Every structure is written in structure tokens, then in C-alpha cells.
Amino acid sequence: MVRTYFNFLNQKSTDFNLVILSDQTLGSASYDDSDIEIPGRDGYLTITKNRLKAVDWTFKCKILNSEPIEQVRTGISNWLLGQAGWHPLTWSQEPGYIYTAKLDGNLSVDVISKSNSNLNINFIVQPFKFLTTGQNKVAITNGQTLTNAGTLPSKPLIKIIGSGDIKLTIGSTEFDLRKVDQGIILDCESQTATSLDGKRTQFDKLYSNFGTISVGNNKISWTGSATVEITPRWAVIA
Q: pTM of the predicted model, to two decimals?
């Protein structure tokens, strides 16, 4: 029987003898808004911040201890707390998607017996999840149409090899690049522009804003001599 597991920081929960129990608490995204009452007006007036709120996830686990609990707890802590910040999180019950999460709070092990302990692992999860198919690099031909298979505008990683002035158009988004030296990498999620080796910033080459790929069909074209490769990062609401 294959155990249910999650993968975080490139390690599976099963690597630490964690058995995920059936009664999980995995929230879903919601809009960040508030309802107010106005005298003389029926119902509510909704004030929205035009954003989705992060999601709370709790994995309820049983630890099958084959070693002393202190040693097991140390191993789990060093895994989950090994790197601060946001990292990819995958869940075996949802193949085909990648979440972005960070650990929420500390770890507290409830020791039931020498060979049996419980642990709740809390994550804060971004309100979107990536399609694994959108993590693949796509070599683009000039005039090609790329279809955003998600439900949200995507923030792609764009690699352009070429020199001089280049205008790249993706749907209704235009990237105005000037005096490019051999190539440039544009990360529309982190909003960084770097050289091909990633060692030098290239913001002085970018004369436009970072853009997104709209849901649906997007024609891609460019002027100037260049080759273009896109990691589209298709996403849906979590």
C-alpha cells in the first residue's frame, strides 16, 4: 500500500516515517474583503482589496518511531526548518500541481508511547497553485500562439538570446528591451532582469513593466534578432 505523503524542501514526509492521518485540515483560497452595513441600505456593502488571502494547511501525522523520539524529532525539525521562507510543496493526493508554502509556527510532538507519537505540521500556503505542465520550458517561434491553460494570468520566466533592441509582445503585453548584450532573463514573478548567467542585473535594458500571460490564447512575436524560451508557470486558484 502506497502511503499518502507531502514533499517539502525536496524530501517526502514518508522519509521520516510520518503517516498522514485521514482527517486533514487543508483550507482553500478566499477573497480578502469585508462586509459593512450602511444605514438605509439593505444587505451589505462589500469592500474588496482585490486580492486572494493565503491559505492555512495542517497535516495531522502519526510518527512511527523506530528510533528514540528525540532523534526523530531532531530529524524532522532540521528538515522542515532547514530553510526559511517560501518553497514548493506537493501533495500526493493532488498530482499535477505545485503549491508554494512556508512553515507556520514551531513543531510540537505529542508522545503517546515509546513507539507512537503525533505531530501537527502547519503551513501557510499561497492562494494559487502551479500546473506542473507549466513548469516546462517552451522554445517559441516568432508568431506562435501560446495558450494559458490556467485560470489566472501567469508570471512567466522568459529567456531571450540575442543582442540589440528587441520588442517582445505576448498577447497584449509588450517588453521593450534596448541594447541587450547577448541575452537577458526576465522573471516576471520575482520581477528581476539578469544576464544569461544570472550574475549581473539588466534592469538598464528593460524599458517597460514586467507583464503577465493572460488566460487563453496569446500570440507571441518580436522584432530584432533573437531566440525566445518561456517557462509559462500556468496557475489556478488554490
A: 0.88
Comparing C-alpha atoms, which of 231, 37, 67 is closest to residue 140? Answer: 231
What CATH number is given to the structural domain containing 204?
2.60.120.860
> From its phi and psi, is residue 43 left (phi > 0), alpha (psi between -120 and 50) or beta?
left
Last residue of a domain, one of 98, 126, 154: 126
Amino acid at 172: S
Nearest to 88 by CA among 97, 78, 77, 76: 97
Half-sphere exposure in the Cβ direction for 114 (13 Å, CA)? 1
Beta-strand runs (E) in 67-115? 87-91, 97-103, 109-113
pLDDT digits (tens, 9 = 90+) for 140-194: 999 999 999 999 999 999 999 999 999 999 999 999 999 999 999 999 999 999 9
24-53 pLDDT, tens digit per residue, is 778 888 888 888 999 988 889 888 888 999
Considering the domain architecture, whether residues 107 and 144 belong to the same structural domain is answered as no
Half-sphere exposure of 13 (CA within 13 A, CB side): 23
**Is the domain of 119 the same as that of 189?**
no
Cβ neighbour number for residue 168 with a 10 Å cutoff: 24
pLDDT tens across 124-137, in order? 999 999 999 999 99
Q: Answer with the one of 126, 156, 178 that is the final residue of a domain.
A: 126
Query: Can you tell me the distance from the alpha carbon of 186 to that of 206, in angstroms, rounded to the nearest whole number?
Result: 9
Owning domain of residue 218: 133-237
174 CB-side CA count, 13 A: 8
